[in-house]
Hints:
Structural class of chain A: mainly alpha
Order of helices and strands of chain A: HEHHEHHHHHHHHHHH
Oligomer: homotrimer
CATH superfamily of chain A: Ammonium transporter AmtB like domains
Shape of chain A: globular
Largest sheet of chain A: 2 strands, parallel
Number of domains of chain A: 1
Strand content of chain A: under 5%
CATH class of chain A: Mainly Alpha
Number of helices of chain A: 14
Radius of gyration of chain A: 21 Å
CATH topology of chain A: Ammonium transporter fold
Largest interface: A-B, 54 and 53 residues
Distance between the termini of chain A: 32 Å
Mean pLDDT of chain A: 70
Helix content of chain A: 55-70%
Low-confidence stretches of chain A: 36-65, 203-216, 359-366, 390-406
CATH architecture of chain A: Orthogonal Bundle
Amino acid sequence: MPEHTVASRLQLSGLCFLLQILTIILFAVFVRYSPESSVGLCSQQLNCSWRNQDLGFQHPRFRDVRLQVLLGFGLLMAFLGRYGPGSVTVSILIVAFAIQWAVLIQGFLYFFPNDKIYVGAQSMVSADFCTAAILISTGAVLGRVNPLQMLLLTLLGVTLFALNEYILLSLMGVSDNGGSLTVHTFGAYFGLMVSRILHQPRVDKRKKQPDTGHQPDVFAVVGTIYLWIFWPSFTSATTVQDDTEPWAVLNTYFSLVASTLATFVLSPVLYEESTPRMVQIQDATLAGVAVMGMAGEMLVTPFGALIAGFLAGLIPLLGFRFLTPILHSRLKMQDTCGVHNVHGLPGILGALLLELVFPLVAQGSRTVATQALCQFCALHVPLLLVAEEGCERRASGKEPSTSTLV
Amino acid sequence: MPEHTVASRLQLSGLCFLLQILTIILFAVFVRYSPESSVGLCSQQLNCSWRNQDLGFQHPRFRDVRLQVLLGFGLLMAFLGRYGPGSVTVSILIVAFAIQWAVLIQGFLYFFPNDKIYVGAQSMVSADFCTAAILISTGAVLGRVNPLQMLLLTLLGVTLFALNEYILLSLMGVSDNGGSLTVHTFGAYFGLMVSRILHQPRVDKRKKQPDTGHQPDVFAVVGTIYLWIFWPSFTSATTVQDDTEPWAVLNTYFSLVASTLATFVLSPVLYEESTPRMVQIQDATLAGVAVMGMAGEMLVTPFGALIAGFLAGLIPLLGFRFLTPILHSRLKMQDTCGVHNVHGLPGILGALLLELVFPLVAQGSRTVATQALCQFCALHVPLLLVAEEGCERRASGKEPSTSTLV
Amino acid sequence: MPEHTVASRLQLSGLCFLLQILTIILFAVFVRYSPESSVGLCSQQLNCSWRNQDLGFQHPRFRDVRLQVLLGFGLLMAFLGRYGPGSVTVSILIVAFAIQWAVLIQGFLYFFPNDKIYVGAQSMVSADFCTAAILISTGAVLGRVNPLQMLLLTLLGVTLFALNEYILLSLMGVSDNGGSLTVHTFGAYFGLMVSRILHQPRVDKRKKQPDTGHQPDVFAVVGTIYLWIFWPSFTSATTVQDDTEPWAVLNTYFSLVASTLATFVLSPVLYEESTPRMVQIQDATLAGVAVMGMAGEMLVTPFGALIAGFLAGLIPLLGFRFLTPILHSRLKMQDTCGVHNVHGLPGILGALLLELVFPLVAQGSRTVATQALCQFCALHVPLLLVAEEGCERRASGKEPSTSTLV
């Protein structure tokens, strides 16, 4: 990080103060706890499509709400741990802001004709999803933007995330409980686009930073452990259909296991070492959960989950070796933490798998196939949203337009 | 730590052995598992007011008992991780003893006319609360007392904690599910009082030890993550009224988030660095949960939780900068880990907030206001108890009496 | 680790690839998700004795299935963290394979006459148990076998574990929910036997490696914390009788606490330091949970759990001091991580305690005593299985037979 003068130090402090005061005022005016039933978030709302869950107080899923929030924060912390000790404080700043804004902006979208936003545990889980996506996109520009720019990007990212999620889940009816599209793919491509816009030819020295951690560091180990423990339960916590729950959990576990093994298969071929580094295992774990985000609930055979996980586990290694240099030299996109390889491509693979593999293995009815097709189309929404945003930014003169991603 | 001779080494070993044997004998004579229903701790007891929860076996909260114990230990471990690698072993010793004694002493208080103490999962949760308070007070004297003295202080602290909790919760009917008063305020002021009694003018070299951790250390990161994940669920796990549960969870999350931001606002103003250290963020997190201990269940608006958290997050920074030097020079109290700033003052703020802010934001009835007033009075009980204990100690000639805290 | 040539590197990669492809094919042919009710694993099966749990969809324990898998992975990760940063990657490889094979082999055993294996959440929990045992046995040979040999040992270990568990739980009806015999004792003695077979007189330099960690390392602290948090809930998650659940949890906590204290009592006597090292505390914690594996559900008094835990906490210290040198010099068994002291002996103590102490403290009926006797006999099954396996290996000429363990 560059030296911070007194002015820049107080700039960040002042901006935080102003934004927090503004948020408190907006909360005071608009946000209330759901009055009748503090759990059934929108039982009284007519136009409510909040994750399609009309939870009443007597609903058997009620007992899980607290567990969901618990898991949601476990997820956040797993991502947070991923960026290592040097950037944890900034990441915590982003988490703290993103959660508040996500509650606000998602509330405005879903409760639009009302004059109040009624929040409950579900809002917090949804805000966790949003913050996870922001943390992913942060990984693409880490070390190249200062905390002040990070805050502004967070504000922009939260808005786009909420819009993207609203279009996909509420308007198109896509099932994406594990967040393949809304969290992983959106987060990765938003981060890449920001990285492209912020491209400065001279600041290339931090590019190879994620490759330097040769000894298995504590944060990668703890992060991987958190992901193994919390993610599968998290995937299922947001599942709509009750009876598919255990499938989603088990599919995610099988995917995790196979993606880890794929690292052990490919890493000695591509690199010099006999066993993969801990960071590579963590990348494979993330890819394994990213690919199961959408398909987890639908895949009905364990070996399908094994194959999907195995393929997903190959992606980060191949991406870091072959794709990242091309992205950097041709498209001028520096992807500091490789989020494109770890989140972007596996998320897309998850959506593609549903389209290609699903009809072969499903014993399902026509509705399932239609759903899968619809899911595939849904893939293009985050890409379009991000691309459009990139164009707008470039059109506004901040960056000479050379090429686009999509 | 000073050099330990063979004698002092075996002293600690022998004392541990004697105390453990004594505890086992007391358990053998007095403690039994609750016979009829191992969950409904005191369903058959007439004079039972154990946290006001007459849980029967069919109660829907039954399924949470295991989760509560899980969370209770998560809480303990979060505090334990706070003291860094150097003092973890001693902290574990204290945890191991405090849990056993808390079960015994709380059992004696609540089951007094019976000849047996019937323990269940609730007793373990209650013992966890007590041990957390002991760990907090340990933070005030860390590095200045040897393990042997720690053990004796633990025995004293557990007894006072149980007495304090019994007066507040059972006799006065105060609602303090998150432990603002019973855990945070009691722990901090008991620790400060012990620190005052143990004051030795010449041993000042460790005073500034908590300020030396410049790089974000692993323990502070892991501790903060644990607190974010476990504490809000823990607050709600002990809530009496079923329908206020999600409020307590969400209030705690909003408070956490705002207190973290407050650190980013104030830290650059008071200190030279542009971003706060990880330890400061952890302090703010603790202050954010301490302030929500009592108010969490009662605050009925999200922005109230944001404001309370923001104010609480300012306290540790201001306290370390301005109050700790005064405490040390004027009142001769060395607060090694700054527990007064992190636990004591935010806990008091939580009790004050209930009194001052609550009537303004509540849509509540008169009962709520009376309850809040009663809570405010309850604030004085731990202070009095601790002060009295300090006087007794000083009266017994161990320390020249100069001034008192309260 | 020795230098790896290109050939040995690709050997591991190729073996992983072949085994993963083979596993996927076996999964494709044999493994399906349970069709009718994805939770009630074997509600439609006649010959089903899968942990004696015929869970239907309406069963109140249904809500815990996800928690069980969560806890199961917490357990795995606790063990994984035990082996320090240097060997985490290899341990993760073993975990990833062992889970898949455990699902397969346990499935073949329990669903034998069927042509398909129907897996559910219970299979995953059972596979977690198996993987934990494999990780324990890994601890005995860590640093002396290469990853390739580890993989083959894992395959062998999973098969023997499944056989052992099938004989104990299904044929003999032993109650071993915490895995005293199936996990701890089996894992330790299988590891010891492998260590004996692999004995090479010249490679003795890593023998004392576990004693070198003088400063309390992060992994030992995090591992201990995980065990304290997750293990007791895990013990109870697999309990058969609903009303004994809280006993199992509380017994495990009391045992944990007392075993930790035992370390503080004995460590200063045997070693030079005044407080035990973090690694010793972790060993005591593991011994404390190992001893409660079988007895946890049956002990009906808290002081019994305290005594059992206290005795178990003494074992690792005594074992490392007196037994490990004898094992190494006389029986040529190098136990790199001391699994015999930490898992083997406490597991046996747990089985013995049931036999010796149980009739004295139980208010129970005759059935309980018979059960305890049966449990005691069950102790010999893992020892015999492991011994026989050792003989077979030696008979096949890989090692000059000198002496056996049992």
